[in-house]
Structure formats: C-alpha cells, structure tokens
Write a structure and sequence with these properties.
The chain is of the alpha/beta class. The protein contains four helices and twelve strands, in the order H-H-E-E-E-E-E-E-E-E-E-E-E-E-H-H. The protein is 15% helix and 37% strand.
Length: 180
Amino acid sequence: MWNKREEEQLNTGRPAAAVQPPPPADARHEAATGAGAAIGPSISIVGELTGDEDLTILGKVEGTISLPKHSVTIGRTAKVTADIRAKTVSVEGEVRGNLQAAEQILIRRTATMLGNLAAPRVGLEDGCRFKGSVDMESVAPGGRPASETAAKPAEAPSAKPIAASPERLPLKQDPLAARS
C-alpha cells in the first residue's frame, strides 16, 4: 500500500521530516506556569495543601494552604476559602481567610479579600475590595510575629506588702483643693 514517508522521499528527493514527540508533561507544566505547581480553573480541592514549591491557584480551594518557604498566587478565576501561610502571597481573585506571609502580601486591583493580613510588607492596589485588618509586624521564622517571640523582660520578684504604721501613711490630698 501507500507509505507517505516513502512517497514524500520520492517526490522531494530528501527524507521525510521525523515527527517530534510532544515534550514531557513536566516540561509543558513548567513552561506554562513558570516554576511551581498550578491548580487549574476547573479543579476544586477541599483540605490541607502543603508543599515545597511555588503554587498558582486558578480554581477553587477550601481548607488551609501552608507553603512557608514559597510563594502563593491566587489568580483572577480563583475562589479560595482558606487560611494561607507562605513566603509571599499575591491575590488577584477572591479569598476568604487570613493571610500570613514572611515577606510580602499584595492585593491586586481585581481582588476581593475578606480576612486579616499579616506580613512585614502589605500592598493594596487601588480598586481592590478588602475587609479585614492589616498587621505589618515582621514575622519570625516560627510563623509568629516578632513581638510574640522576643524575649520577655524578667518579671520582678513578687514582694509581700508590709503593713505601714499610721504615722507613715501618706496624706490624701483633695484634688479640688489643689486647683484653687
């Protein structure tokens, strides 16, 4: 029967071009999203997300997201109901939950954010929708604000009150008498 490659070789006088196999799925994924993982717009996840790479969310996530050494990006199509802890967080979509970042939180103009923000640097672009509080204390490595992890001053030893003799008690002054 007919063989296209032989026919192409006969017609052009040179060998037919070999068909390139598609790149592996990992290479396509990294090319599409940069470095890191992505949750596509049709994906819905309920539970706890942890990992050791950057994460881009375009779908729906409910639960907790913990990537303390990496960045989390919430895309425009994302609807997230979760507390997020990461190195940096960027929000373009909808988030309901508290965000805690070791370096920076950025709420883009297309974002709808309902929750509290805690990071040394916080940016709210003009036009974003935000309801919550902002805490810009630096965050210690354990994930707590530096003020909570700093050494607390030593408490003074408690002294028992000593009864004073009536002659040594201070005289009570009338605050109104001092004004006249």
